[in-house]
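subagent[fold] <- orchestrator: predict structure for attached chain, return tokens only, no commentary.
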Amino acid sequence: MQASVHTFDPETGNGSALLDDGREVTFAGEVFDRSALRLLRPGQRITVVLGADGRSLTRLYVVGIGDDQTIR
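subagent[fold] -> orchestrator:
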């Protein structure tokens, strides 16, 4: 699922993203830490995986950056 970064706190790694359907979902610093990213900026496009609650993210990444991704 695609989203755009809405907020990001570089000190805690916490933030939120806007899904393409307009919903805002949050992510915890632990999710960011597992992302292999160093920084996020508002408006940046990311790929996300929603948690079972549908209101928080369990994974976020940029296609081409991650353990199982290749840059083409």
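orchestrator: received. Logging for downstream: Helices lie at 29-33. The longest strand covers residues 2-8.
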